[in-house]
Write a sequence for this structure.
């Protein structure tokens, strides 16, 4: 973890320095709508503290707890806002495929809109791509 970066848009959102509407806020995370949604509902959950990417997380209780909390917040929001969705996806882009260098969980109630956007949320095996939140939790479990 590092100090908040003044140039990081997600740090600014986490500190309420923007006009972004927050769907959830607590001492660890904030959640808001994705500016360029890829699904029927598409939210981002980010830590208040600046963590660059999933590559900065370690196999320890603190990181496992944070990702677990992020997932719980995302699941709660989507079951509230899209209760009839048949499928949900929760995960992270891994470098070099992440768009913002501030850890963020994609929380999506499908279908993808448009359908081709599902490609952005595919695993690329050893090359990275998208990692499901549950798979990341398994990797971080102390």
């Amino acid at each position: 973890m590092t100090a908040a970066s003044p140039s990081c848009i997600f740090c600014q959102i986490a500190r309420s320095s923007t006009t972004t509407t927050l769907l959830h806020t607590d001492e660890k995370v904030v959640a808001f709508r994705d500016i360029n949604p890829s699904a029927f509902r598409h939210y981002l959950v980010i830590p208040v503290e600046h963590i660059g990417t999933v590559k900065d997380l370690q196999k320890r209780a603190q990181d496992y707890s944070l990702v677990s909390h992020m997932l719980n917040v995302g699941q709660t929001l989507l079951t509230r806002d899209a209760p009839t969705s048949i499928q949900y996806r929760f995960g992270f882009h891994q470098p070099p495929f992440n768009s913002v260098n501030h850890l963020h969980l994609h929380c999506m109630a499908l279908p993808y809109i448009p359908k081709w956007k599902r490609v952005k949320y595919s695993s690329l095996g050893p090359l990275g791509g998208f990692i499901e939140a549950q798979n990341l939790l398994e990797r971080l479990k102390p």
User: Anything to note?
Assistant: The radius of gyration is 14 Å. The mean pLDDT is 93.
